[in-house]
Amino acid sequence: MEQCPCGTGKTYEQCCEPYHTADQHPASAQDLMRARYSAFVKNQIKFIAETHVPGTKDFDVNEAQEWATTSTWKGLEVISSKQGQPGHKQGTVEFKALYADQKGNDYLHHEIARFKNIDDKWYYEDGQIVGTGPITRSAPKVGRNEPCPCGSGKKFKKCCGA
After folding, report:
1. pTM above threshold 0.85
2. How far is CA 73 from the centre of its chain?
3. Does the structure show a pLDDT above 90 at 142?
4. Which residues, 6+ apart, have CB-to-CB distance to 63 below 8 Å?
5. Contact, 148 vs 162, CB < 8 A?
6. Cα–Cα 20 to 30 A to 144, which of 57, 100, 108, 131?
7. Which are the contacts of 129, defined by CB distance < 8 A and separation ≥ 6?
8. What average pLDDT does range 96-102 have in this prediction?
9. What mean pLDDT comes out for the span 10-21?
């Protein structure tokens, strides 16, 4: 019996396979996110396409197929999952998926994914990649010819900037 790639500890047959074969529907946003990860591992791109919010136009099946088949999927970590009370129509799941390209270079896909429940069925709405926003400085930038912030009295370029 093969372990499910989504990391629940269950077998694939007990976990994500019933979602991929449409025998069952994920009961939560997190269940859908895990099933979508497993679908990439198992090259079930049709499932990925069908679980986008209906009417999604920016999903490229060929691009997803290429990513799924040229990557070696190494694991999934669910960081947090937020979903309201039963009947709630929105959910978010923050997760990290580790994978390697064909050259063996490791990559981390860190995302906060948003899900929507429509007619008692969960769909992937969109996601925000974590760590891709603008970098903001915690302190103002020190110029080379300005006094060093360490208080030495020297110019920055001759002190801590050397």
Report:
1. no
2. 13
3. no
4. none
5. no
6. 131
7. 109, 110, 111
8. 93
9. 97
